[in-house]
Write a structure and sequence with these properties.
Blueprint: H1 2-20, H2 22-32, H3 38-70, H4 74-93, H5 102-105, H6 110-114, H7 117-122, H8 129-146, H9 150-172, H10 174-220
Helix pairs in contact: 1-8, 1-9, 2-9, 2-10, 3-8, 3-9, 4-10
């Protein structure tokens, strides 16, 4: 069972870490926190990391049951979430300068930013619809295959905690990245990250639409 738990641990890390991508999200975090001091950024990073942990945990363990209760399928979540991610990426890419969106720009204090730690900093910028759908799928498959075992549960929670820790470290020290790249380098990174966010959103939405269209085609046959 220890070997199985280790396999589950690395499976969760390998499946979720590239999608959460805290390294790639660091420039986006900086774009939304231009008025924060280093200490405020670390505090906010901790809040985002904790939110990410709980969101991934809930998606992993009860996500499938919640979606089933409301009659919502994963493809529908992907389409809606993909459109949301695309909208945020487009709004950032279309800005004439690199100031944060108006909803964030109005914030002049740390409490204002803390209230936005969940949306949009945690969801969808850190834990987006792609990560949620993968977590729901992993949780359903693991539960069906292995049932309930304490070691498996510990491995799953530890893997999610490692991902949340990586989010905290990447976001808390994102200012070091900004200093290393300079203003021009950060401008380029932010533009590229915004465009990549649009592409990710379109891809997520397309995955959902493809699944929906294939189910319709199957029913027609």
């Amino acid at each position: 069972m220890i070997i199985t738990a280790a396999k589950v641990f690395f499976l969760v890390i390998a499946a979720l870490f590239p999608i959460v991508d805290p390294v790639g999200g660091s420039p986006m975090f900086l774009a939304f926190t231009p008025q924060c001091s280093p200490q405020e950024c670390r505090t906010l990073s901790l809040r985002v990391a904790l939110n990410s942990f709980w969101l991934l945990t809930l998606s992993y363990f009860v996500g499938a049951h919640v979606l089933g209760f409301f009659g919502v399928s994963l493809p529908v979540v992907q389409v809606g979430g993909g459109l949301l991610v695309t909208s945020i990426g487009w709004s950032m890419l279309a800005q004439k300068d690199l100031s944060p969106p108006k909803s964030i720009q109005k914030c002049t204090s740390a409490p204002d930013l803390m209230r936005r730690a969940f949306y949009p900093l945690t969801m969808p910028l850190t834990v987006g619809p792609g990560a949620i759908s993968v977590a729901v799928t992993l949780g359903a498959n693991t539960s069906h295959r292995y049932g309930f075992h304490v070691l498996i549960l510990v491995a799953e929670l530890t893997a999610i905690a490692v991902i949340a820790l990586s989010v905290f470290l990447c976001y808390a020290f994102a200012s070091a990245l900004a200093r290393a790249l300079g203003e021009t380098g950060m401008a380029i990174i932010l533009r590229l990250a915004s465009f990549l966010l649009i592409c990710i959103g379109v891809q997520i939405a397309w995955n959902g639409m493809s699944a929906l269209l294939s189910s319709v085609a199957f029913e027609v046959r």
